[in-house]
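Sample 3 of the quickstart, ligand uridine-5'-diphosphate:
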Amino acid sequence: MTEPTTPAIERTLILVKPDGVRRGLTGEILRRVEAKGYTLAAVELQHATPDQLATHYAEHEGKPFYAPLVEFMLSGPTLAVIAEGQGVIAGFRSLAGATDPTAAAPGTIRGDMARDWGLKVQQNLVHGSDSPESAEREIAIWFPGR
Ligand code: UDP
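Result:
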């Protein structure tokens, strides 16, 4: 039998998207991150620029939801966060739940607090990096020099 491995200490980029800021959910979302035992290393309210979003969402350029996604992300301020902890990258994505808020399980941020508003883009409250490489790439976009 192999011993369970301890997840590495990592950092991740979390965004509370404009719907979460508008709906006053930043406190509840950060509370869940901290309650899980992750550490907040940076928290800053930012109004994203088109250049920042083009880089952040480069992998989605050309997809049908790309233009409405960028428009949504420009519609108000975003709370940008660096969170740290063992296994925080997968751990935060587990806290966030499935991309589609209708499919997201109860107990997750999206499952508990987001729903399908019938809009062209999923307004699903949060973003979380999906790998160590994405985390470093995205942290450099939102927190240059960190
Ligand atoms: N998105 C959407 N429709 C889709 C797929 C994605 O509106 O069919 C939006 C949604 O806001 C999502 C973001 O694009 O959070 C980025 O998509 P990704 O597949 O990276 O999902 P995530 O990693 O955020 O769960």
